[in-house]
């Protein structure tokens, strides 16, 4: 995913190698290269601006001393700042004290919500939970069937409206599912919701109605990491529409530039909680900011 960014950052650092001391001009030149590398990777402009300002300040400041050579010090600072924009600490799911924990998924159509429901179901089972997936996407033809298929692959119960694909009231389905989960002792409910190709008011209203009806413990906004500069606007619209509590980056296996991954936390203030890296149910993991930063700088 970050191959180009990785190469560009390495070449920015290369010019610092072998230098005994960094002049302001060295730092400026490196900062400029990092800036262009990030912008080319589609990282949002304000995020890049703040990032570069902090790098410059720290690289010229008093902390440049000690055992590391100047190039190593700059790499260390960039690493720490990358961890910072990716969210710092790993943020885990907050399970409800009184089960079931309700996790609602939101995002554009094609972002990877239904696939994620299966991945989350499998992962939750591995954590010793007894999850139930809920088909509250009654918009997209076949969404219910698709959820049933991933549920079966994951070995997880799926609650679907009796009428099947495309009919019924998603708010009622979500509400009924929680009663059913309580009755059948499922301790986590994952609610898949409808997406559209673009942001629209009706979609947002439906998602927010479901949110109000089921009072989820977590609302996960699923975003395709390949959508480039559109990521910021999409994330802001969903933040306003459903006030999500965490982000899931999907399609991190793609070869696009990955700016969404680096912008979405800073822009929304919400933590990235999971990453999806392929179509298989196992292509999924908890998101660790420090590991991602190391991968980018490796
Ligand atoms: P939804 O409309 O948000 O429910 O999106 P889907 O779950 O149906 O996913 C849309 C397409 O993206 C499907 O073809 C999925 O197989 C694919 N997909 C989902 N997650 C990933 C991922 O992490 N990597 C890749 N390469 N494809 C994915």
Which descriptors would you attach to this protein?
binds guanosine-5'-diphosphate, 49% helix, 11 helices, eight-stranded mixed β-sheet, 14% strand, alpha/beta, single chain, 298 residues, 8 strands
What would you note in describing this structure?
It contains 11 helices and 8 strands. The chain has helices at residues 3-14, 24-40, 45-60, 70-85, 113-126, 143-154, 170-183, 201-214, 230-242, 259-268, 289-297, and strands spanning 101-106, 131-136, 157-159, 188-193, 218-224, 246-250, 272-276, 284-286. The longest helix has 17 residues, at 24-40. The radius of gyration is 21 Å and the shape is elongated. The relative contact order is 0.17. The mean pLDDT is 91. The site of guanosine-5'-diphosphate (GDP) has 17 residues, from α5. Keywords: Cytoplasm, GTP-binding, Hydrolase, Nucleotide-binding, Ribonucleoprotein, RNA-binding, Signal recognition particle. Its main location: cytoplasm.
Mean pLDDT: 91
Structural class by secondary-structure content? alpha/beta
Q: Beta-strand level of the residues, as a percent range?
A: 5-15%
Could you give the distance between the termini?
A: 13 Å
Bound molecules: guanosine-5'-diphosphate
Task: Estimate the helix proportion, in percent.
Answer: 40-55%
Treating each run of at least 4 consecutive H or I residues as one helix, how many helices? 11
Give the SSE string.
Answer: HHHHEHEHEHEHEHEHEEH
Subunit structure: Part of the signal recognition particle protein translocation system, which is composed of SRP and FtsY.
Keywords: Cytoplasm, GTP-binding, Hydrolase, Nucleotide-binding, Ribonucleoprotein, RNA-binding, Signal recognition particle
Catalytic activity: GTP + H2O = GDP + phosphate + H(+)
GO molecular function: 7S RNA binding; GTP binding; GTPase activity
């Amino acid at each position: 995913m970050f191959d180009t960014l990785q190469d560009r950052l390495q070449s920015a650092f290369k010019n610092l190698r072998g230098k005994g001391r960094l002049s302001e001009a060295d730092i400026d030149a490196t900062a400029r290269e990092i800036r262009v590398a990030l912008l080319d990777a589609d990282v949002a402009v304000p995020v890049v601006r703040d990032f570069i300002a902090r790098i410059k300040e720290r690289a010229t400041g008093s902390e440049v001393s000690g055992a590391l050579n100047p190039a190593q010090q700059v790499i260390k600072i960039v690493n720490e700042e990358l961890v910072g924009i990716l969210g710092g600490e790993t943020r885990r799911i907050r399970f409800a004290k009184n089960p079931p924990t309700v996790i609602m998924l939101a995002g554009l159509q094609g972002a990877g919500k239904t696939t994620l429901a299966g991945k989350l179901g499998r992962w939750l089972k591995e954590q010793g939970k007894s999850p139930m997936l809920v088909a509250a996407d009654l918009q997209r033809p076949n969404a219910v069937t698709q959820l049933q298929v991933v549920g079966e692959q994951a070995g997880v119960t799926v609650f679907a409206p009796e009428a099947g694909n495309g009919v019924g009231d998603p708010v009622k389905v979500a509400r009924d599912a929680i009663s059913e989960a309580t009755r059948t002792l499922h301790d986590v409910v994952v609610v898949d919701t409808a997406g559209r190709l673009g942001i629209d008011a009706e979609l947002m209203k439906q998602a927010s109605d479901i949110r109000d009806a089921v009072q989820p413990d977590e609302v996960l906004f699923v975003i395709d990491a390949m959508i480039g500069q559109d990521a910021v606007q999409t994330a802001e619209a969903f933040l306003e529409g459903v006030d999500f509590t965490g982000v899931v980056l999907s399609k991190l296996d793609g070869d696009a530039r990955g700016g969404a991954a680096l912008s979405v936390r800073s822009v929304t203030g919400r933590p990235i909680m999971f990453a999806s890296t392929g179509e298989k149910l196992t292509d999924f993991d908890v998101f660790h900011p420090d590991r991602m930063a190391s991968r980018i700088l490796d």
